[in-house]
Specification:
Elements: H1 3-7, H2 9-28, H3 32-48, H4 58-76, H5 90-94, H6 104-131, H7 135-138, H8 141-166, H9 171-174, H10 179-186, H11 188-205, H12 209-219, H13 224-263, H14 266-293, H15 298-301
Length: 306
């Protein structure tokens, strides 16, 4: 049954508008100094020291240290503006269920998600390894901010479209595809893998200084295989908190969640659609409109953040 038939067109539209406006409000008051500082000072500094000093330290520290640097750099990026949207993906993954209500459903979805993250990160890491010292051009402030705007605005638009598909607003478009294609993209594993690809692409756009210093370290090996390996570790680090939350949710209430989603599939579909709309709106506003039109950073403009 269509969501508009269950909730009513006006009610569904109000839910969607609330998700988008709520995300814009959060994006407008986002304090990147606070969250970036938390990752740098609370997570990275105690574990590694001054990461800016480590950027060119590959000849002295070697390959092994790079894996530690990768894991900490990923973990430090957990709550940055380019990674916090990963938590919008939890509803769809946590309510994963197949027609037989198998307990394997959520774990298969998690596996597909992790695979998507690591594959994209591995490809990007190989590229960084090939760049070698050329990575410093990529790490220049103007370049990395432009890269972030392009990547995250694009991902935001994709998430908004996906959210509208989940809520049924683009049925006329999706019905143009064959039943086989719709079934493939509607499966839990496919959706989880696509979410993983999106999250893997976060690393491509991420301007976070600790991460960029890690890129310099990884590029110091001039080895695409090494670059791919450490970048995949970084990818696992950036999703670690989310994965742990997912495991706890499934371990404590997995059967109940699956029964709930099987008995009322429109509810997790609604949650997933609204979460995608919220995540997409955050990205489009924060990385796109805010930079292009200077309409964000309200906390800084009001003098609240210093």
């Amino acid at each position: 049954m269509h969501l508009r038939e269950i909730y009513g067109g006006r009610r569904l539209a109000l839910y969607a508008a609330a998700a988008v406006l709520g995300a814009i409000f959060i994006a407008g008051f986002w304090n990147y100094h606070l969250v970036d500082g938390f990752g740098r000072d609370v997570i990275a500094a105690p574990a590694l020291g001054n990461t800016s000093d480590l950027a060119g330290a590959y000849p002295d520290r070697g390959m092994g240290f790079g894996f530690i640097f990768a894991a900490i750099a990923g973990l430090a990026a957990t709550f940055t503006a380019c990674n916090c949207v990963v938590f919008a993906m939890l509803p769809g993954l946590a309510c994963s269920v197949d027609s037989n209500r198998s307990t394997k459903g959520p774990w298969m979805a998690l596996g597909a998600f992790v695979a998507g993250v690591t594959i994209v990160c591995g490809i990007y890491g190989a590229f960084i390894g090939l760049l070698g010292s050329g990575v410093e051009l990529l790490n220049a402030r103007s370049v990395r901010l432009a890269q972030a705007r392009i990547v995250f605005t694009g991902l935001g638009v994709a998430m908004l479209v996906w959210g509208m598909v989940e809520l049924g607003y683009l049925d006329r478009v999706t019905n143009c595809f064959s039943e086989r294609v719709r079934a493939f993209f509607g499966s839990i594993q496919t959706k989880a893998a696509i979410i993983g690809v999106f999250v893997g692409l976060f690393a491509v756009g991420r301007p976070f200084p600790v991460f960029r210093e890690f890129l310099s370290y990884a590029a110091g090996a001039n080895n695409p295989l090494y670059g791919a390996s450490v970048m995949m570790v970084q990818g696992l680090g950036q999703i670690l908190v989310m994965v742990l939350l997912f495991v706890v949710m499934v371990a404590l209430g997995g059967r109940r969640l699956m029964e709930w989603s099987a008995e009322a599939p429109h509810k997790p579909q609604l949650m997933s659609g609204l979460a995608l709309l919220a995540g997409g709106a955050f990205f489009v506003f924060y990385w796109g409109l805010s930079f292009a039109m200077d309409i964000g950073r309200w906390g800084f403009k009001l003098g609240w953040y210093g």
